Amino acid sequence: MSVNASAINKELLPFLQQSPSPFHATATMLTMLKAAGFELLQEEDVWQLQPDKAYVVTRNESSIIAFTTGRADPAETGIAMAGAHTDSPCLKLKPNAIKPHKAATQFAVEVYGGALLAPWFDRDLSLAGRVAFKRKNGELASALLDWQRAIAMVPSLAIHLDRDANTNRTINPQTQLPPVFALNQGEATTPTLDSLVADALSEQLGVDDFSELLAHELFLYDTQPPAMVGINNEFITSARLDNLLSCFLCTDAIRHAAQQEKGQFSLMVCNDHEEVGSASACGAQGPFLQSVLSRIAARFSHAEINQQSEAVERMIRRSLFLSIDNAHGLHPNFADKHDAGHGPLLNQGPVIKINANQRYASNSQSTARFVNICQRVKVPYQSFVVRSDMGCGSTIGPITASGIGVETIDIGVPTWGMHSIRETAGSQDAAYLAAALCDFFTSDTP
Prior knowledge:
The chain is α/β, with parallel strands linked by helices. The protein folds into 2 domains: 5-87 and 239-442, Zn peptidases (Aminopeptidase); 90-222, Aminopeptidase i, Domain 2 (Roll), CATH 2.30.250.10. Helix content is 27%, strand content 26%. The chain has helices at residues 5-17, 22-35, 74-77, 193-205, 241-258, 288-300, 308-317, 364-376, 396-404, 429-442; strands spanning 39-40, 54-59, 63-68, 80-85, 90-101, 104-112, 125-135, 140-146, 180-183, 210-222, 227-229, 235-238, 266-271, 320-324, 327-328, 351-353, 382-384, 407-412, 414-416, 423-426. The strands form 3 sheets. Strands 1-2-3-13-4-14-18-16-17 form a 9-stranded mixed β-sheet, sandwiched between helices. The protein has a 6-stranded antiparallel β-sheet with strand order 8-7-10-5-6-9. The mean pLDDT is 94. It is an enzyme of class 3 (hydrolase).
């Protein structure tokens, strides 16, 4: 099938803007899916799953699984599965977040994930994430907040005071990255995080009975909105393209699958904490996906109760998992950083990521299956292998493959500046991958 790039990008850019934290990304995806008719499930409830329906469930408000059910036994048909991750490298507030220092008041931050630090300087930064607080009546509550406007920055040191800045500079994340958000005018007027949160709760959510901030997971982000760039709008530039672009495409594709009447099982999972190792209850190394698959098999497999674990294994062995995460596009200024035969180009189609040491989960079988999909929908595709003298990153692909035993392929959209505060992708590539995903979720066999 063909997918219109303009239509995809018209929805993609607002999605990126509305998703400044994993919590907001999950909430945005949930809104999209509920609007498309997906029924929200709660993990603590008994699930009454029905054939030819669409369901969605979240964990920790930062990971999400959506699936469509079919009419056949999934142990006989398998499930078409795709996964991405909701988190991106950034600066995260420490528990004691306010740091008066000399003439300024700063946020105390730690680096979340493998962030490229230099681009964080001289940016207009805002704050977003989740807070847990106590109401005046003693009730515990939580909320998602997004300050939206620029409230902080990390000012550079003038080159006059650092003549080696362009030739020999390192960045100390403890001493040189704390963002400034106010002048320090004495203890009486120094803002507190409690006061910032109380004001935000009142302004954004109408909560006027705030008593005390108990905990928070707040992240700084660049307020510059996503944009189409290039003389012919060849590029998309935005924060968090890695990996919210993939999250959006998964959500859009399964939303499309739910509108079909083909009776197929399909599933998408977007996990938090990939950038820090995935080892959490809602990360890819946790039990979230396995739990949902077990509940699907328990409802739809024809096996006896004592054989349901076997039905799960049979279902997984007939499935294919697409691990979707951005790939390193060939940088025109640093072409020597790529293997000469494996430098993916922007706007030339999705990238199949391969690594001999299993940093990616692709093998010849899963690769052939994805190539077949691309050929079927007339989408170009490329391959990436890291240079043999460089280390290779990884994804949720090997974690999911080794965790549940599903055949997996690692793919993604080629990108420049991965893990920067602002990344660049080709404006056509999202549509290419969207076409392949839509076909994958609606074809007769995963």
